Amino acid sequence: MSSSSTNTTLNIPVLLASLGILYLFSKLWRAHLEMAKFDGIPAVGPSGLLSSFISGMRYVKNARELIKEGYEKYHGRAFKISIPNSGWMVIATGPELVNDIRKASDEYLSFDEALNEFLQIDYTLGKPHREHLYHVNVVRNAVTRNLSARYSDVRDEIIAAFSEEIPVTDDWTSINAYDTILRIVCRTSNRLFVGLPLCRDPDWIDLNIQFTVRVNSIAAIINLFPDILKPIVGNLLSPTGTATRRAHRHIGHIIQDRLDKQDQYGRDWEDKPNDLVSWLLDENPGGKYRTAEDIAMRLLNTNMAAIHTTFFLLSWFSDTLILHNDICHKFKSPSPASSTTWQSNRTQSSKLSERKSSPSLKNMDGAKFLWATSAKWIVFMKEVTRMVGVGVLVSGRKVMKDFTFSDGTRLPAGSTVCIPVWAMHHDERHYEDPNEFKPFRFSDMRDIEENGNIKHQMITPNSDYFLFGTGRHACPGRFFAVNELKTLLAHTLLTYDVKLEGFSKEVPEPTLFTSAIIPNQKAKVLFRKRIMMD
Ligand code: HEM
Fold first, then answer.
1. 475 labelled as ligand-binding?
2. Interface confidence (ipTM) of the complex
3. Relative to the CA of 302, which ligand 1 atom is closest?
4. Which atom number of ligand 1 is nearest to the Cα of residue 192?
5. Whose Cα sits closest to atom 21 in ligand 1?
6. What is the pLDDT of residues 303-316, one digit of tens each?
């Protein structure tokens, strides 16, 4: 009896170890078979089973350099790169392949499935957000359509947010740029989304800022686990319950009231607010989606798409302007005439001398804002996004059915393909002196090229510029984002003098994490009341 029990206790560890080894081998074998499907596509770095795993680790901090290396080596073709815990990812380069991605249908290359996998939507946002994406149509249509009707509210919120967050003082005041700018962007965007007074509620602002961070970090954790364990980990970590309850406390009664009014009076009723809540209700497919919880979650989801991206860019714009005082000076002595009298096909030198001779606008409060946001040279923003951007890659698509590029390269179903936006924006085939920051690059291109005025707008996707992605999934919020950014920037420069603390000569180093380019979280900016120049 005692000898048989000893045998059992001895056998259990042996059994567990054998199962472990078996699991490891089956995993390695499957990984080998999976990797073999990509054999025809060249790799950046080593492509062996273990060596590619190590190279995947390098991707975490060096994605930008690795992708640039592959871009230069294999330009015009597709190459593969090892991603931690996800095997190979394919990067398409050159106009033909990028155009293949732009044209491909969702049946073959799916934006939704790529996002679904990246964000683990079932667990982080909830299944309804995978099943029905009506909020995307709302951003595409109603948000954009209502921009001019709601512009004065957004501008009003920008003025209020800045005066509370960064009081106008005669002495320099040091501000933690990251947190402050993020709150201002969140509040401003929410003036359009949910209106007053909720857009100013500190807990609503905190919820929306934190929700994005939580969703991304929880998704990253879930993605570390094998598929079989994802439901367990996903349900354990899911932020949806807490977030919906917290959002519901703020907005549940407002949504319920609108639902009741819609039941009573139909789609249009007197004094119906013109905001995202109403637009979501107008587009709502009904049934299980017509609940206060579902709509509250769509609000969080839209905030997630809107806030951090816009904030990243505003940070880069501010840093760049601070370091390029010459551009700031255009704001300090602006001329309404200069924006309207600029003609096409002028020479660079005549434009520059015109900029220098701009008369003061200091007594023209109403006009100066309009001038500041409509001035042609504000397209310097586009040059900043070209230089820095928000990510190394864009337009991730999941391959749903085997896909063949126009050069014959085959992508196996189940793989993911992306466009290397950062490398493209730094390619001399697309831009002269690509590593040089030329604030008026796009302004000049707009003046000189035929149809340049349309082609080089920041919102226009074209074959050289991919900040907002490409094809039918190109960012539908870009019209709002660009208008908001121009106004945020114009207000900053018309109200404050700004300088960087500690970083006098260079833009504070961004944090690079996998394919994200994140503004420096420690950067401090000094603000004081703007001193007018004559
Ligand atoms: C400057 C800030 C922004 C940047 C850089 C940006 C960038 C992007 C990019 C790269 C995509 C994916 C495109 C693709 O895969 O080809 C995207 C999608 C999206 N963006 Fe933006 N975005 C910004 C602001 C906004 C704002 C303010 C909103 C909402 C008001 C928004 C809503 C969306 C939505 C809903 C999608 C998904 C589109 C779809 O499912 O087809 N974005 N954005």
1. yes
2. 0.99
3. 29
4. 30
5. 475
6. 999 999 998 988 88
